[in-house]
Structures are given as structure tokens and as C-alpha cells.
């Protein structure tokens, strides 16, 4: 017997041995040959070891609800409720038929236990209400690594993160997966040498302008004049002009803006306010008379009797006599001068002078009263600007009647008390009245300019007068 049972030495189940022995006695159809390994019987006809179908030949091979499944070289007892399909483990091809002489030293050791050899190949079916029972296996769990058997018989994933059975380091984050878990870094960190380190996003130019690195993140900001775009990284120029910050013109620029002012204004220190320029303070010569500052400009004002010329600066005399804007009567003669006018009364020659024209009086030579008096008095009027620069030739005299052998002397007979005038003879028949000192107006100067005629041949000496009335204006224009 022991010789025949040699193949069972490796078998741990005595029960199994007993079953096989029993079968041998009852049926006699099978012969356990010492040359066949366990679970096989020697077929004399075929002269080879063939598998024994224990499920058929052994009554109640499996107990209760267990279902017997024949295996090559053994059998399995599997719960009926647990497996919907007949269990067909993918057993590696047996080297069968065994050679007659090949006494297997245990042959198929994993199958020797009869069941539980391939738990990792089990395909879990839908849970049943039947309370499962399991083949009696050698303590091997029916679920693959990472799964645990639930009470209902299903294999459930173990959440290693939840159960704290993971091996992630403290800087890492455990992420449970089906059948396992992974260690990874949260956003903003990266794995260097097994540790999660903050990414210095600033170093990698995440922000277009200003960047602040923080643990696990970063924050971008923009220079003044820019605003952060919705992407949180790029900056966009602010169009400050939309807020109308300038008094006048606004020009948006990249990162800033510029104000400009209308003509006549200047930008204040604040860079936005436009202030009126006081053009009058620039120069005294901006206006000929008086400068009046106005917002954005200036105006020149002229004294009464003048108007502002086309150039906007100069003062031009109103010629009241030409425009008719005067108060002279029909008998009077209107005389215009700078800044005013005067009405000249009709000429009235003082006795013994008689009028010879509308501006000349004469004292007849035959009249004894006229002896030692100038022969003629010619009335002339002229105007002169106050403060006129000197010297200035202002009036010319010339002898109109020339006597052969006569010569002429020109002199200022009266009215030159201030010695502002000088008579310069320019030929033997002409002279020029020269202004030698500035005269400040307003003033009326009456000069008697005398021309003395001397003729030694006929022993004649006579004179004529030009009574020159000079209207000196109040203003130097
Ligand atoms: Ca960071
Ligand atoms: Ca801008
Ligand atoms: Ca101004
Ligand atoms: Ca005038």
C-alpha cells in the first residue's frame, strides 16, 4: 500500500488519500499505479496515465453547496453561488501523457491541494444573496493585491490613502487608484528627488511684468499704467484718457498717458491741468500800448483815438477828419494828429496883416505899419509823436522867390524855449528843421520859423515867417 501511495507523500490531505483508496476497492475498474502521479490512473489498455475524474468517481466529492470541478490531476470544490461559469483556469499545458517511468515528485504541486490554485484568475460575478462559502484553500485570499474581500464576496479596492497604508512622503499627496495608489505633487509643486518643491514660476517668466512667488502658486501684477488681463499673467495698457484726466487734450501711451494743452495754455506741474499763459508777462513789446491777458490768449488795447492794427499789436491813429468822426464845424478845418484831432478855426489875420490865402497873411510893403514886420506869415500844422527819437528832420523850408544877388538866412525866431529844435541850412535857399531833443507830449508847440532875405546889392532886408504848430501826441506812436 505504501508503495502505491508513494505519490501522496507530498499531499497534505489524508482525506484525499482515503477517498482514492476507497474507490480502488469498490470499483476495481481503476488501478492506481505507482507509476502515475496523484490524480492520475494507469490505463492498461492505453498504457498511460490518465486523469481521474474525481467528480464522477467520488460520491460527494464536495460538500453542501460546493460544486465539484474536475481538474487535470485533481478537482476543485467551488461554491455554486459564486461562479456562474464553470471554472476553467488556464492551466499550463501538462506534459501529458506522463511517461510511464516518470514518477512525478509531487507532479503538480499547486493542484495537489485540489483548489485555490489560481485565485488571481477569478472573475468576480454579481453579488448574490446566498452566503458564500469558499473552497478550503491554504489561506490564500481570493482577491488580487490591492483589493480586499468584502462580506458580500466581492473584491473591493483598498483605499490606501484613506487607510493611511500608503508610502507617500509628507510633501506628497496620495491619490487612490483602482488596485493601488499614486503619490504626486499638488499643483504648483513638482517632484525633485522624491520631494515636492514649490515651482518658482517667477523664474520661468510666468508673469509678463511683476511676479510674486508663493508656496504652491504665484501671483502676477502689473506696473502702474497697466492692468492685469483675465489670464492673470499678461498686462494690458490702461487707456487713461477714457477717464478724461486732462484739462484739454489727452494722448494715451503704452503704460502712461500725456496731456497737452491748447494754444495759449501750459501744462501745470500736476501734468493734467492746463493753465493760461500770461503772454503779457513775457515781453513789454508784445503790444504797442497795453497788453491784457485773457484765458488762452491776450489782447492789445490802444488808447482813445487809436485802433488796433491788423497785426493785433500796433496802435493806429483814427483819422477822425477822414472818417468824419469829428466835431468840427463846416467853417473849421479838421486837423488830424496821432491820437486825436483838432478843429482849426478859419484864418484870421491880425492887423495890419491881410489874408492872402486860407493859410497865409501878408503885410503890404506900402503900409507903414508893416515896416519891420515879416512880409508874410504862413500857417502850417504838423503832428509829432511824443518821444520821437532824435535827431530827426521834421520840416523843410525853401525860398519860393529868389532875387538875384540875394541870400537867405533860416532861423527859429520863437517857440524854441526848450531848445528842442535846430534849424539846419541845407542850401542857400533851403533849410531843415531838426528835432534835437525828444519832446514829451501831449503838447502843442508853436514855432515861428523865419526866412530872412538879404540883398546887399539893392540894400534890401526882409523876412517871411512860417508859423508852425506842432501837435505832440501823448503816446509815442
Ligand atoms: Ca510658486
Ligand atoms: Ca496708457
Ligand atoms: Ca493768456
Ligand atoms: Ca487822429
Automatic annotation (TrEMBL):
Its main location: secreted. Gene3D superfamilies: Laminin. It is found in: Secreted, Extracellular space, Extracellular matrix. Keywords: Calcium, Disulfide bond, EGF-like domain, Extracellular matrix, Glycoprotein, Repeat, Secreted. InterPro entries: cEGF (IPR026823), ECM_structural_protein (IPR050751), EGF (IPR000742), EGF-like_Ca-bd_dom (IPR001881), EGF-type_Asp/Asn_hydroxyl_site (IPR000152), EGF_Ca-bd_CS (IPR018097), Fibulin_C (IPR055088), Growth_fac_rcpt_cys_sf (IPR009030). It comes from the Eukaryota. CDD domains: EGF_CA. This is EGF-like domain-containing protein.
